[in-house]
Amino acid sequence: MAPVLDVSNLGIRFGGLQALDDFNIQVAGREIVGLIGPNGAGKTTVFNLLTNVYHPSGGGIKLTGLDTRGKPTHQVTRHGIARTFQNIRLFKSLSVIDNVKIALHNSMNYSVLAACLRLFSYWKQEKAAEKTALELLSMFDMEGSAEAPAGSLPYGAQRRLEIVRALATNPKVLLLDEPAAGMNPSETAELMRTIHDVRDKFGVSIILIEHDMSLVMGICERILVLNYGLIIAQGTPDEIRNNPLVIEAYLGSRKEA
Predict the structure, then answer these.
(1) What is the DSSP track for 228-245?
(2) N or C: which end of the chain has fewer CB within 10 A?
């Protein structure tokens, strides 16, 4: 079958710095892929390129055969790529359910006039959006917090809410940028179950950036390793765990005495 996401020879240069070079990845439907590497290796740069926050210096990005290069970020999201962020970016003063409803805007097409006058088309679509948002929250056992301010949630719940909000855009590919950052071991174990549930219930492909190797090795079917903007290794968790180039990138090489 054709890959859901097909990235070929992707690269970007910032002035004289080649931040990413010749990056290639094909992601199949419902696949969970890990993207790891030392700090500054270019991992988040990949996500910024896939969502067109950055525009590549070269290479191609195809989502279910559609070339997404040059499209505005909101159109990339509409075509099926959603993401979470390394630093939580919720609307913390808004309610939990409003954070999810904001991500449902693609499915709502009432006019500004209908909204101002509170016409039937407005109420009908708002009611449908609220129902969908509650259904999504219930899948993560968060419906009881629907009216609470998003900023009042515990850290782990805020991470889950970011995932719920991303899923509300109905993505084909979900990009998770360090979802376990700041979590304790029990929260990380719960996150692993959540990621599996997301893949199984929504049928999405997932690319995961993470420094917690127990999480990466525990859920990813394939792993790519970046270092200085280049892929230095890729394979199964067992292959990556024992790869000497990966060990050197993380731990450094042993100097002869």
Answers:
(1) TTEEEEEE-HHHHHT-HH
(2) C
Q: Please give the residue range of the domain that contains residue 204.
A: 5-89+159-251
Given a contact cutoff of 8 angstroms between Cβ atoms, the answer to whether 43 and 231 are in contact is: no
Residue 137 lies in a domain: no
| First-last CA distance in the chain | 52
User: By the 8 A CB rule, do 104 and 164 touch?
Assistant: no
Are 156 and 174 in contact by the 8 Å Cβ rule? The answer is: no
Mean pLDDT by 10 residues, the chain (257 residues): 93 91 96 94 95 94 92 92 92 96 86 82 88 93 95 92 95 94 87 91 95 92 95 95 88 54
**Residue found under tokens 């979802």:** 179
Residue 256 confidence (pLDDT):
43
Closest CA to 209 of 196, 221, 230, 223: 223
Tokens standing for residue 219: 């859920």
Q: How many distinct structural domains can be found in the chain?
A: 1
Which is it for the CA torsion 85, 96, 105, 64, positive or negative? positive
Nearest to 104 by CA among 84, 134, 62: 134
pLDDT value at position 255?
Answer: 52
Question: What CATH code is carried by the domain that includes residue 175?
Answer: 3.40.50.300
Q: Residue 209 and residue 43: Cα distance in Å, rounded?
A: 7
Residues in the chain: 257
DSSP assignment string, 186-243: HHHHHHHHHHHHHHHHH--EEEEE-S-HHHHHHH-SEEEEEETTEEEEEE-HHHHHT-
**What number of other Cβ atoms are within 10 A of residue 37's Cβ?**
24
User: Do the domain assignments include residue 124?
Assistant: no
